[in-house]
Amino acid sequence: IGATLTGAYLEGADLTGANLISANLTGANLTGARFTNANLTSANLTSAYWFNTICPSGMVTNTGC
Fold this sequence. Notes:
Elements: E1 53-54, E2 60-61
Antiparallel strand pairs: 1-2
């Protein structure tokens, strides 16, 4: 809860089921990352880079979850 991942390079990361409540992912590279069943409640995803990213719902996105 509240992790600071500003600018993190998370390309291809498997974050299935991760608890990212209030995490700061500003400017993070989320290309191909998997957030299936992850909790992104109140996460800051400003300027995050999305490409073939899997949202918590299982939807694949290039624009954000």
